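Figure S7 source data.
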Amino acid sequence: MIDYDLHIHSNFSDGKLTPRQIFEIVKGIGLTGFSITDHDTIGAIDECLFLVNEYNIDFIPGIELSTDYNGFEVHLLGYFIDHKNKFLSEFLKKFKNARLTRAQEIINILKNMNYDISLEEVIVEAGNNYDSIGRPHIARLLVKKGYYKEIQEVFKILLNKNRPAYVERYKISLLDAIELINVVKGIPVLAHPLGLDGMCRNSEFEQFLKTLTLNGLKGVEVYHPMHSLEDEKYLKVLAEKYGLVVTGGSDCHGNIKDNKYQIGEKGICMKEINCLRGLTR
Ligand code: AMP
Ligand code: FE
Ligand code: FE
Ligand code: ZN
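Tokens for the predicted fe (iii) ion complex:
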């Protein structure tokens, strides 16, 4: 039984749905609550806290930080964060500016490759996402302009790592990110760990998880579309062993699959949400 979907992206990062649309869908499928975990931004949280009463749905403020661990991109979720914390806003401002600079660099490369595209157009495409401009917005624009049929194709040909228009983005180190989430009274949770490049069920992974736990990690995302049943079982055992809470969610970006949104496809039950809530201070 899934009561909470704790991994949803709104149109404040690279999701397509507005906070209100997400509330509507969550209500429609009968979940008790959910969290929005936008990439590097808390832009949707105030609006969601406002919508809570109207929809009578529980909402948990969240975020998904892109971090670096020895050259690998690792995503860290933060739940129950104090989104008004000044220290956090300062950090997020850094992300936002770095994303803008990097978008401009990508656009310069594309211009040199004779694509007709400007930062202004990308900003318009991003709309609400202004705080978290990324490759998806550039990809969408190139599709709209008729250069490609679909977003995946743009990534494959231009934007993926090792493709000509790929530019690294500023990331904080994973350990600093764990500390940041703890400082702002949030609960740091390792996102989709077995969906990360180079990660699999082996002793190296266990050592990695152990190191993070010693550095303040509190939970691990067990239920995620990128994880197999074996992955789930394996992660649950490790969570128990290292005293980590278990979370899960659909990672919905607002795309339609099998005629429906992914929201609620993965998530956790009341018992698990109570464990997570139990860690709040
Ligand atoms: P960025 O934050 O600018 O590095 O872009 C990363 C985002 O792009 C991810 O969160 C995904 O939502 C999206 N993304 C990454 N790879 C692909 C892909 N191959 N096809 C479509 N979207 C992708
Ligand atoms: Fe995303
Ligand atoms: Fe992620
Ligand atoms: Zn995500």
